[in-house]
């Protein structure tokens, strides 16, 4: 059965909504799970709906704009185990975050180098680490590394992580459907994949039948179109 992992983005201590990674135009989130964009209220409601964990992206820390929500995230982690993305760039950043969340995401968007990724995996158990393969316009999205998708697959084969987020940033918030071509190209990693980006209600059963174990869902979940349990 496919596990639905709820997604919320945080900015200035509130949950926000946007499309296709356009962080300049995010607005406060309206969710069926709460009467306000307070992430603590949303998390508590999601727990009552039997969510097992929650994905949180701290957009302030990812953008390094000086504001952050790290202590609010720590509170949320006492309600639901948090899978946290704050734009990890190196081992030092990763280590700092371990006290605030259940699992820490190391994303290609912000990672400094493959060497830093290897340091993280050499020092800490795989159970605490999720690699996020960020894709935009069908290309590996990375600010600091000169790699393409095929190059990064070689890295994944070598490191052999427990979980890999496959995130099509172009599809986030669009409800336009998941990137079928991208998923097919990562077939060898299917048992490890957490799929994200544009997933619709009609695709939940399809993904489950394909053997995908987990999916990140934000927009469609908060609008009530996809439920935590759809079977």
From TrEMBL:
Higher taxonomy: Archaea, Methanobacteriati, Methanobacteriota, Methanomada group, Methanobacteria
Keywords tagged on the record: Amino-acid biosynthesis, Histidine biosynthesis
Protein name as it appears in the record: HisA/hisF family protein
One GO term describing the cellular component: cytoplasm
Record SUPFAM superfamilies: Ribulose-phoshate binding barrel
Family affiliation: Belongs to the HisA/HisF family.
PANTHER family (UniProt xref): 1-(5-PHOSPHORIBOSYL)-5-[(5-PHOSPHORIBOSYLAMINO)METHYLIDENEAMINO] IMIDAZOLE-4-CARBOXAMIDE ISOMERASE (PTHR43090:SF2)
Organism: Methanobrevibacter olleyae
GO biological process: one example: L-tryptophan biosynthetic process
A Pfam family the protein falls into: His_biosynth
GO MF term set: 1-(5-phosphoribosyl)-5-[(5-phosphoribosylamino)methylideneamino]imidazole-4-carboxamide isomerase activity
């Amino acid at each position: 059965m496919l596990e639905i992992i709820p997604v919320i983005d945080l900015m200035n201590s509130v949950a926000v909504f946007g499309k296709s990674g356009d962080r300049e135009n995010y607005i406060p989130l309206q969710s069926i799970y709460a009467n306000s964009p307070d992430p603590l209220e949303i998390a508590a409601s999601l727990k009552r709906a039997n969510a097992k964990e929650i994905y949180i992206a701290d957009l302030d820390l990812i953008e390094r704009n000086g504001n952050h929500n790290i202590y609010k995230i720590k509170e949320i982690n006492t309600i639901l185990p948090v899978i946290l993305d704050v734009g990890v760039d190196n081992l030092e950043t990763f280590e700092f975050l371990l006290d605030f969340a259940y699992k820490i995401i190391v994303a290609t968007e912000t990672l400094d180098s493959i060497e830093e990724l290897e340091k993280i995996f050499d020092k800490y158990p795989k159970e605490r680490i999720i690699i996020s393969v960020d894709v935009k316009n069908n290309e590996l999205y990375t600010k600091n590394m000169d790699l393409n998708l095929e190059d990064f697959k070689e890295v994944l084969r070598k490191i052999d992580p427990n979980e890999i987020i496959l995130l099509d940033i172009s599809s986030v918030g669009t409800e336009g459907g998941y990137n079928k071509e991208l998923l097919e190209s990562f077939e060898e990693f299917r048992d490890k994949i957490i799929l994200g980006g544009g997933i619709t209600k009609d695709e939940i059963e399809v993904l489950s039948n394909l053997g995908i174990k987990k999916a990140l869902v934000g927009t469609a979940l908060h609008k009530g179109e996809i439920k935590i349990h759809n079977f």
